[in-house]
């Protein structure tokens, strides 16, 4: 049996709303706050700079029990406070992987609705409490930096090893290693990294890893001697 279809108003662009359209919901692009009166779910896909402005305008026409969603990592549920005070049901859903989105809701019922909507989109839901949403976003952001580090690693490896599978094996193995090279080796590494910005990134990461494993000589090099060589 097919779940009830919703009429969904979208302001701006939202990838999730496109998935909901594909799942059979009636999705329409809204341009005026008054248009939400006919919608069961309102999706805010506007820019972070516009979010608070839109919430304020939509609060004039919001109804008790109406659903509101945003996927902006900058904001928690706090941005929805004017709507929650009117009895609206609000949740935040942020893309975390290609197959999973987070769900942070104003109450358990809304969380369940959010999880069901994600399931209809063939997405797995990750429940994140409101009190930890900012930490969650920070963790996702921190993990995203790994991509740039890997790009630099592959560029350097490609100069010595042309086999792609071998490069991937080396990178994957290094990612799980706790070994930290000695100062002399790290100095040699810096010398062959062509981009100044990449050399700086290398030193910052060496410093942080040295702090984690109490390698004080490497930490000192990264903070002082390494910087002096620019």
Low-confidence stretches: none
Strand content is 5-15%
Overall tally of domains: 2
Q: What structural class do the secondary elements suggest?
A: alpha/beta
Largest sheet: 7 strands, mixed
Mean pLDDT: 90
Oligomeric composition of the shown chains: single chain
- Kindly report how far apart the N and C termini lie: 67 Å
Protein name: CGL2689-like C-terminal domain-containing protein
Pfam families: 6PGD_like
InterPro entries: CGL2689-like_C
Domain CGL2689-like C-terminal: 134-225
Topology:
Blueprint: E1 7-12, H1 15-22, E2 26-29, E3 41-45, H2 48-58, E4 67-70, H3 81-84, E5 89-92, E6 100-105, H4 108-120, E7 124-127, H5 133-158, H6 164-175, H7 183-192, H8 196-212, H9 216-228
Parallel strand pairs: 1-2, 1-3, 3-4, 4-5, 6-7
Antiparallel strand pairs: 5-6
Helix pairs in contact: 5-6, 7-9, 8-9
Question: Any descriptors?
Answer:
single chain; 230 residues; alpha/beta; Rossmann fold; N-(1-d-carboxylethyl)-l-norvaline Dehydrogenase, domain 2; 2 domains; seven-stranded mixed beta sheet; 9 helices
General description of the model:
This protein is an alpha/beta fold and 230 residues long. It has two domains: 7-128, Rossmann fold, CATH 3.40.50.720; 137-228, N-(1-d-carboxylethyl)-l-norvaline Dehydrogenase, domain 2, CATH 1.10.1040. 50% of the residues lie in helices and 14% in strands. The chain has a seven-stranded mixed sheet, with helices on one face. Helix 5 (133-158) packs across helix 6 (164-175), helix 7 packs parallel to helix 9 and helix 8 runs antiparallel to helix 9. The chain is elongated and about 65 Å long. The mean pLDDT is 90.
């Amino acid at each position: 049996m097919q779940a009830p279809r919703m009429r969904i108003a979208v302001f701006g662009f939202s990838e999730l709303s496109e998935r909901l359209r594909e799942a059979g919901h009636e999705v329409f692009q809204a341009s005026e706050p008054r248009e939400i009166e006919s919608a069961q779910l309102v999706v805010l896909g506007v820019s972070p700079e516009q979010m608070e402005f839109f919430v304020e305008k939509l609060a004039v026409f919001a109804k008790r029990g109406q659903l509101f969603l945003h996927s902006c990592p900058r904001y928690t549920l706090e941005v929805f406070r004017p709507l929650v005070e009117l009895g609206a049901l609000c949740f935040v859903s942020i893309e975390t992987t290609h197959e999973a989105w987070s769900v942070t809701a104003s109450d358990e019922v809304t969380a369940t609705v959010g999880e069901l909507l994600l399931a209809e989109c063939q997405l797995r839901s990750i429940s994140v409490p409101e009190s930890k949403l900012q930490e969650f976003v920070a963790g996702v952001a921190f993990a995203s930096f790994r991509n740039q580090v890997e790009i630099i690693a592959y560029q350097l490896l490609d100069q010595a090893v042309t086999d792609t599978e071998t490069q991937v094996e080396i990178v994957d193995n290094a990612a799980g290693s706790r070994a930290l090279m000695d100062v002399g080796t790290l100095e040699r590494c810096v010398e062959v990294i062509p981009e100044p910005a990449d050399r700086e990134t290398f030193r910052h990461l060496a410093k942080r890893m040295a702090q984690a494993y109490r390698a004080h000589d490497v930490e000192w090099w990264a903070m002082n001697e390494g910087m002096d060589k620019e």
